[in-house]
Structure formats: structure tokens, C-alpha cells
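Hello again,

I reread your note about wanting to compare the complex against the isolated chains. To keep things tidy I'm splitting this into two emails, and this first one only covers the full assembly. Below are the input lines as submitted, including protein chains and any nucleic acid or small-molecule components. They are followed by the predicted structure of everything together. The single-chain runs will come separately.
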Amino acid sequence: MEIKLRYGDSALGYIWTIGKPMALFSILYVVFGRMVGGVAPPHYALYLVIGLMLWTFFASGVGLTMTSLVANGTLLRKLPFPRIVIPLAASMTSFVTFGLSLIAIAVFVAVNGLVPRLNWLLLIPLILELYLFVLGLGLVLGVMYVRLRDVVQVWDLVVQLLFFLSPIIYSFKMVPPRARQIMLLNPFTQVMQDVRGIIDYPNHDVIAAPAAFSPLRILPLVIWAFTLALGILMFKHEEPMLPERV
Amino acid sequence: MSRTRKTPTVATWRSSMPSTNSRPRSSPNAIEVRNLSKEFRIPHELRNTVREHFLHPFERTSYEANTVVRDVNLSIRRGECFGLVGRNGSGKTTLLKLIAKIYRADEGTVQVNGMLSPFIELGVGFNPELSARDNIHLSGALLGLSRHELDERFDEIVAFAELERFIDQRIKNYSSGMQVRLAYSVAIRAPFDILLLDEVLAVGDAKFQQKCIETFGEFRAAGKTLILVSHDPDVIRENCERAVLLENGAVVSIGPANDIVDLYFRREGLG
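Full-complex prediction:
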């Protein structure tokens, strides 16, 4: 596995992996920081940087995983090996990149004078949840992409829509409660809001503790599990045919 | 292990290999192919985008079944060098891919007794954007070498391919001959009992061809099984005991390599 990671790493420059979301952060912070002015969530810089870093991991992770099978078609056609290695390596590459961006988040945490608490350990299962969601969605779309090359175009569009339909740059409280419930169906939004809530508790309390057993807590997990299971099943089904279809 | 040698012998790197003798001794054959068939469905109009499906929603894609491997039966003995002969498109590479379990058979079975190292379609699937060094690590890992074994054999791989000067260059800047040299060098250092070689001598220079042929001899001496695809009649004659002639995916004849090559040339009107 470590070798596959290395292979992925050399294709990306380390600097860009943090540089790009940080550049986006600067622009958004300057523009939206003023626009949302009064209604901006407290610690807006931290709020924004957490959102953007998680978003970058989600969007690029799904994108990379989705295209990995077709991109490695030559390999699939020439060597026998467990095919799952390819989407796993692609998603892990994004994950490692995300790990680096945690440094940026740590800086903002420190600047805001936040001290780590014990419940920050909850971040680990949350990040794992997001990783498995990226993998599951990447597998679903990746198997579709092998058969239908338009999937990438559609996904690009969906990503742009989702960016604005998720409370990444704006406060979740600006959204009407009804729409909030729909937005929270997306496991990505659930993870992002939980991460913000845990790191900066009283300021960004979301749905973390109080609503522990409400449908809002369960539904994203149901969708998450469904996506992951569907991805694995679709991949298992397609696996023997991959070398002749990619 | 001697690192200074230009051409490491089988014995030097085999000694560091995990024993592969745990396989069942009951079957004397390295490969058993029974009633094997494979067809590719070729759509008459390739519809790969939504637009095309949208433009002709009711028109069902008609397929043409192209049988590439047709009811093939083969037994390849352990320690044998076996040749695959036939025209372009006669199913040689597809048969190799079925044996390597890259393709799934439509009908029939393939039984492989022992570890297999494939060298198919002039390579082991290098990524052109990566350096030779990274590619060796990637392919080596996928061929079943542990990181430790890879580190140990890395110098040998590079030395055999004679690419020390270019090891940090990207594969896309390699000539096709250099790529094949490197790919072969990686493939033969993976642990194997059976080696599938698809046109390994086609693009290498004279010296590399000579080195390859020498390694064939070493593998034979070590009891390895070789399956060789080549369009060079002399390569088949001189290295293989038996061979098969394929035509349109079907077996025409199996027999001594010399006879099969003669038959092939006669049927092509060249003999």
C-alpha cells in the first residue's frame, strides 16, 4: 500500500495541495467575509478553512477515485492483481493530501486560541466516515465512468452545485430550517458541521450532541452506508470485466 | 549477493526468493486449459456518451460477437518452453491474458499450477508520467514483490536493463526498446514458476535479445515454465520444445515447435 501512495504522491506537488485551497480561502475570505458581515459565524476564518479543506478532500477525492480506473487502464490490461488497489490508492492519495491540510487548520485553531479537548477524538471517526464516503461515491461513479464517459462532466456540474448548496462559505444558520434538514442529508455536510461543532463548540454548535438520536443524526449515516455498500457491490460486480471495458 | 555483476544469474537472485515449492505436486502440468472460449462484443456503433444514447434512444445497440479464443485445449508441462504461433489477431495475446486471469473466460477453465509472472503487450503497464524508479516500485509491488525484496533487487533490475543513467527520467521519454528492457527486467525478478512472454524480443536491440535468450536458458535450468509468443520463427525453433498454431482463435495443431513453425509458414504460403 505504501508504494501505491508514493506513486500517487509523486504526481502531485505538495505545495499545490495546500496552496490551492488556501488561495481560494483568501479570495473567499476577503469577498464573503465582508458580504456576510453581520451574519458571519464567529471565528469565520476558522469556519471557512475547515469547510474548504474538507470540501477539497471530498471533491478531489471523489474525482480522483472516480477516474482512477480509466486512468490506469493500461495497468489493468497487463497485470493481474486485486483491482481494488487502484481506487484505494487514489482515495488514499487524496486522504494524505488532506492530512497535510490539517496543518493549515491547526494554525487557525491556534490563532483563535482554542485548546484541544478530549472530545476532539471524535474527529477521528468523523474523518473516517468522510473517507469511506469518498471511497464509496468514487466507486459508484468510477464503475459508471468505465461504461459511460459523460459521468465526469455530470459530476463536475454536481460538484459546483454542491459547493453552493453546502454551508461551506456561509453560515448554516442563514439557511431556513427546512432547507437545513435537506442539506444535512448529505453525509459531507453532516461531517463538516460536526467537525466545526467539535472544534469550536459553543460558537458553531450544530447537530453534534443535542440531536444525537434524532432522524437528522441517523439519515446521513443511512445514506452514507448505502453509498458505501452500493460502491463495493458495483465494483465487485464489474471487477472481472474491467480490463476489457476500460 | 553480488551486486557488481552485470548480468545476475538466476541462481543469485533465486536464492533470496521465497520458496515456491509448496504447490501441489500431484499435477505434472503447469497449465491446463480446457474448452476455453472468449468473445468480445463489439457494438456496431460505439455509444459511450449520453448524447449518443439520447439521439437514438430506441435504437438498440447491435453487437457483433467476435470470438477471439475458440474452444482451446492445452496442457503445458512443468519446465517446458511452449510457443504460441499465429497471425496478428489470431488470439495469442488474449489467450495469454486468459491464462494470466486478466480476462474472465466465457466458457471453459484455466488451471495454473504455480506462480505466474506476465509480460504482455510489450510491458508490465508502466505509467508514462512517472520516473523509471517509481515505475519499478509500482510494477514490482503489483507483481508480488515486497518492499524489502524490491530494495534488494532494485540494482539488479536496473543493471540488467542497462538503464542506470536514465533511472530518474520519466518513462514517456524512454524509447520503446528501453521500456521493454526495463519491463522484462522487472517481470523476471518477480517470484514466478511460469513466465508469460509476449513478443519480448520484438523491439530490443541485438545485445538485449542475446541477453534475453541467455536468461531463457537459465530459467529452463531452474525448472521454470516459459510461454513464448514470437513472430520470429528462429526464436520459437531454438527455444521451444512444443508450440501451438492458432488461427482465428482456434487451435490448428499442437506439436513439436519445428513442425508447428513449418506448418504455419506452409499455411501462409511462405514455406
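For quick reference: The mean pLDDT of chain A is 85.

B.
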